[in-house]
């Protein structure tokens, strides 16, 4: 910042801006003055821009305002971020952003915008009428206003960190550079893990009923929801409805952590440090990250199924269950059903992501005139619909996986391979047999989504996750 003519010119420009914003001439710029200044300068939402304009980390004194040096330090850091973003959007590196580059940038986020919409965005920043944006125009437009388009879409349209409906096959969310720099990413992951734990505990009876029906329901016994619940309660009491929930909650943390780390590494290998992944690339990276996480924690999946289906007194606990499986069936038993489980990631993640991106795109096209924030009802509806569609597509493979995990513990059950089991189910029960237990699975979606969201928001507040 010191010494060069460019630095001196920049400090003078920032000084003039500070004087213009400091309406009461007290040597400080507060939220009210910034709001009034933004309204005077035009463009963007003054309230929102003001809230972002003076972040807590920019104010070294806890007095709610910035003096000249704090203001200059804040603008210096913001210019560096804006320059990085400008270079990432300037794909041909000619020092200017044109309409096609704006369209490409939105396409990378899975958002299709028309030529007219791209021109409208460009026109809002283009001061010299060239229909291109140079660095100076970009900097002056966004220096105090919020980075609405790119970062807001990433921020508001979080999916997998918000919702937990009992399956961990979703593609991980993208985190903005700002969230990574401030440490908000890990707080959001922790909030998501706690929300998942509470949500799974709240819907555990329905989850156990689903597994019970996947394994035991057939054409002959006509086991239904009420019959399944009655059977479980008669065998083990009301507490037995929560069998298997402990390990189901326990596996959230390692699976989420492994999947996030694997996703970041795969993403870097595909696109490098700066780029946001295209939707197709997110699917590939997310599927590979999911497969990596499932490979590592899969023995816990087998233990979860065995503990969920156990009879009263069959196992003393988690370690006893693991020891009995190892002693009677050998180490290979911990990977029974692994193949249909990994194959199930592809239809689940692919359809979940495709439906979510389609719904997101539709909403942004029609309603995002002033903000990329969809509101909680829209976000939850899109996430619930997309996850449910993914579950329907992958459910037959999930059922085959569960039966393979459980078949060694059921007396008289045939020990079949994935294809053998599929053929057996289709020949004995038809296509309906591949969807045994899907009714309680659907029944738990709305309570699971509701619980996970409420807990997630409260955890964010407790951990100090800042919202825009």
From TrEMBL:
Organism: Rangifer tarandus platyrhynchus
Boundaries of every EF-hand domain copy: 9-44, 77-112, 113-148
SMART domains to which the protein is assigned, alphabetical: EFh
Keywords for this protein: Calcium, Membrane, Metal-binding, Repeat, Transmembrane, Transmembrane helix, Transport
Protein name: EF-hand domain-containing protein
Solcar repeats: 183-269, 277-362, 374-462
Catalytic reaction annotation: phosphate(in) + ATP(out) + 2 H(+)(out) = phosphate(out) + ATP(in) + 2 H(+)(in); AMP(out) + phosphate(in) = AMP(in) + phosphate(out); Mg(2+)(in) + ADP(out) + ATP(in) + H(+)(out) = Mg(2+)(out) + ADP(in) + ATP(out) + H(+)(in); 3'-AMP(in) + ADP(out) + H(+)(out) = 3'-AMP(out) + ADP(in) + H(+)(in)
Compartmental location: Mitochondrion inner membrane
Principal subcellular localisation of the protein: mitochondrion
PANTHER family assigned to the protein according to its UniProt record, in alphabetical order: SOLUTE CARRIER FAMILY 25
InterPro entries assigned: EF-hand-dom_pair, EF_Hand_1_Ca_BS, EF_hand_dom, MCP, MCP_dom_sf, MCP_transmembrane
Membrane topology recorded in Swiss-Prot or TrEMBL: Multi-pass membrane protein
Domain of life from the UniProt record: Eukaryota
Pfam hit, one: EF-hand_5
Family indicated by similarity: Belongs to the mitochondrial carrier (TC 2.A.29) family.
Residue ranges of the region described as Disordered: 37-64
